[in-house]
Design goal:
This protein has about 180 residues and is of the alpha/beta class. The chain has helices at about 65-80, 100-105, 125-135, 145-160; strands spanning about 5-15, 45-50, 55-60, 85-90, 110-115. The longest helix is centred in the C-terminal third of the chain and has 18 residues, at about 145-160.
């Protein structure tokens, strides 16, 4: 009681160029993908977090994924769940293990749980990223990062509307995980 488990990871890099993929279309000769000789938009990232208790996905779009960006996302998570002790599950990326991030977490009541090396697939948010990639990125050709950000926001809004809402009386102490 009084605590929440959040799964956190970075999705990207997201580029504004034609992406291969499949979709529903009339059977005909496929359209050619446009050339992408110039890449004036660069890359962007979506920093996402997943609330395991409510099955809700959240995130923010950013042009970089450095320590200040990670701290800004952690501050947003802290503001979203005030007064609760948070446990954040994430991988062993260097920015997650930086002194600034660890000190901030200690000061703000956030416990950090790292996935084992080479096992980032144990992070529960990875399943959500697979769905995001399939439904938003594959087969896309965004004109700019503002279009990509809008498409991701629409996906997250729709996904959260369809989310399975867990009952609050679930006894988390009786839930056990089988780990191979």
């Amino acid at each position: 009681p009084g605590s929440r488990v959040i799964s956190f990871d970075e999705f990207g890099p997201i580029t504004c160029e034609p992406q291969p993929g499949r979709g529903w279309a009339r059977r005909s000769h496929p359209r050619r993908r446009r050339g992408n000789y110039r890449k004036p938009h660069g890359v962007a990232y979506w920093l996402g977090w997943y609330d395991l208790a409510t099955d809700q996905l959240y995130g923010r779009f950013t042009r970089r994924k450095r320590i200040p960006d990670i701290l800004a996302a952690l501050r947003a998570i802290r503001r979203q769940f005030p007064g609760e002790h948070l446990y954040v599950i994430w991988d062993n990326w260097n920015a997650h293990r930086s002194k600034k991030v660890i000190q901030w977490a200690a000061r703000n009541g956030v416990g950090l749980a790292y996935t084992p090396n080479y096992a980032s697939w144990l992070n529960p948010i990875e399943c959500q990223f697979g769905e995001l990639d399939s439904f938003v990125i594959e087969g896309s050709d965004f004109a700019g990062h503002h279009e990509a950000a809008a498409a991701i926001r629409n996906f997250v809004r729709d996904r959260n509307r369809r989310a399975r809402h867990k009952t609050p009386h679930t006894n988390h102490n009786n839930i056990r995980a089988k780990v191979a």
